[in-house]
Amino acid sequence: MEKLYDKYDRLHDYVRLSITDRCNLRCVYCMPKEGLPFFPTDKVLSQDEIVQLIQNFAEMGVSKVRITGGEPLLRTDVVDIVRRIKAVPGINDLSITTNGLFLAKQAKALKEAGLDRLNISLDTFKADRYKEITRGGNINQVLEGIEAASKLHFKKIKLNIVLIKGQNDDEVLDFLRYTKDHDVNVRFIEFMPIGNSLKTWKKEYVGLKNVFDVADENGMVYHPIELRGNGPSDNYQIEGYEGSFGLIHPISSKFCENCNRLRITADGYVKACLYWNEEIDIRSAIPDKKAFRKLIQKALDNKPLNHEMAMSETDRIIDKAPTWRHMSQIGG
Description:
- By secondary structure, the protein is an alpha/beta fold.
- 28% of the residues lie in helices and 17% in strands.
- Strands 7-8-9-6-5-4-3-2-1-10-11-12 form a twelve-stranded mixed β-sheet, covered by helices on one side.
- It starts with 13 loop residues before the first strand and ends with a helix.
């Protein structure tokens, strides 16, 4: 088996796969207020194409897959997709990122299909604020989904919180306290300038040092911990607490040097770097393993050492234009 390496000798064994660009929310950091035109059905990868694609990747040493969207639970065949991917030899870690609105109804079927882990987006505990951030979402559905999933003993449940100045940065303490009696990993994520103007981003960005400041001010004693499948997150646990918290800081701290992931968009493009415009259409090559391998390696050969996100030193970037896609169209 010839594994996947880029020109910086980084092993790539992790695929983040978007199975739809559709979403039932309009989160302020993810898509514009007016929404986005969604792909027609025939432009989105079919279930058979998805499975063959993952089989191809597994033969190249990929062992970890995360299903994303849009909102992946909007696909009526999502449980079948999970079951078939988990059955692919070599895939030993399968997770999904969801907004949680449909999770209460589907958590049991997803677990039985072989899903290992869950990431759930939850940027606030306040119902009115949640409705504002998501432009119409019902937080009670998400909380019911988290409760249902917690009873099913997934390997790990993570809550994703994108911190935005003036919107939810005053709730850091609430999220830290939530880990006292809940065995979840609360992950604070820096707001990224994807699909947003730099001017808007600069006004709303808040660094994650704030999380430590809040913990210290409230007498919380925390220690670094290791979590399986934690990706770019630095994780900590507060003494006496059941759960943990993590920090994902693509802006204030570089984590690109250890990047091991490739992203596949719902319409069949590979993106080796989240932020930059470089992407290659691989859909037609899915049935041809040799051609598929060649295109994936081309993407890796063009992958920059780091994304230089929101920074001025862009000389080393292959394609200096930031991605035209919004987060909902990439898969995160």
